[in-house]
Amino acid sequence: MAKQARAAATRHQVLEGAALSFEKLGYGGASLSGILSYADVTKGALYFHFESKEALAWAVIKEQHAMAMLAAQRVLATAQSPMEAILLCAKEMARQLLTEPIVRAGVRLTLELGTSRGPATDPYIDWTDTLVALAGKAREAGELRATVDPAALARFLVSSFTGMQLVSEALTGRSDLYERLADMWALLLPSIASPDMLPRLLELAALRDDVAS
């Protein structure tokens, strides 16, 4: 068990080092020698767990996706309503981008390696599917206007958040990401949320510290 724990810790150390390299340099700019430097492990330790830079990149994407889905599960278990869950999922994604190198690297790699087919599209598909289900429940509960199509809303939110975080990264290193997210909700919620839910949702959207943990 101790040997397995050490192996798992080393693997995670390699992933974190790879994430730091991929985040800063992208897939094309990152090198195995640079990853070794960031991870502070031996070449043998790296190759024991990953056979190539490509394998490392896919592992970072997979880990980032797992972290996002786990966070979504925690939000779903604690949110008071489907609409609150949608807002809190977006806020948790913002928090992860600001605090987790693996998430930042995974998002960058997903964009760089993504195609119309393949593993790099899985995070977008699963994220969209989660939001479709939540939006459907919100409409059934009267939290969303009856005219709102859950699938269209989910696609819009995933696309909007993806573009928002990219612009925020380019202009401010994502330091204004929470503000941009609050602006998005302030503009969007009045047109999609039921009047009874709107005040609570706008209040929740504006809170910076009320982030799923």
TrEMBL record:
Annotated HTH tetR-type domain residues: 8-68
InterPro entries associated with the record: ArpA-like, CprB_TetR_C, DNA-bd_HTH_TetR-type_CS, Homeodomain-like_sf, HTH_TetR, Tet_transcr_reg_TetR-rel_C_sf
Record PROSITE patterns: HTH_TETR_1, HTH_TETR_2
Keyword Cytoplasm (UniProt): no
Keyword list, A-Z: DNA-binding, Transcription, Transcription regulation
The UniProt record lists the keyword Glycosyltransferase: no
DNA-binding region: 31-50
Pfam families: TetR_C_45, TetR_N
Gene Ontology MF term list: DNA binding
Protein name: ScbR family autoregulator-binding transcription factor
Organism: Rhodococcus opacus
UniProt lineage: Bacteria, Bacillati, Actinomycetota, Actinomycetes, Mycobacteriales
